[in-house]
From TrEMBL:
Signal peptide: none annotated. Residues 15-114 form the Hemimethylated DNA-binding domain. The keyword Zinc does not apply. The gene is hspQ. InterPro entries: Clp_protease_adapter_ClpF, Hemimethylated_DNA-bd_dom, Hemimethylated_DNA-bd_sf. Gene3D superfamilies: Hemimethylated DNA-binding domain (2.30.30.390). This is Heat shock protein HspQ.
Amino acid sequence: MTPADATIPLPPIAHARFGIGEIVRHRMFDFRGVIFDVDPIFANSEEWYDSIPEDIRPKKDQPFYHLLAENMESSYIAYVSQQNLIPDDSDEPVDHPAIHGLFTDYADGRYTLRPQHRH
């Protein structure tokens, strides 16, 4: 077998259910946020992953979303698996201090990413 014939095992193709600029809510915890980046599969540290209680630990072979998140007490960055997100139907904007650095307009329940942040 030549190197060109060797196959590299790849994870199954994961399809992102949500897109950049969408507002989502966590399925189990009381926070919501706007998506600013998506990883097709888990791309954080093993230490971070292992810190999640085993009985609620998500599978790694699904999209993970970076959120500008908020709850009643604070604003922060969250990293959440697709299985733990649902659409937010509140029609309310997210009040996070980094919103205006990444996004321009808010309309129809969605933010528009600034052109310089697109790739």
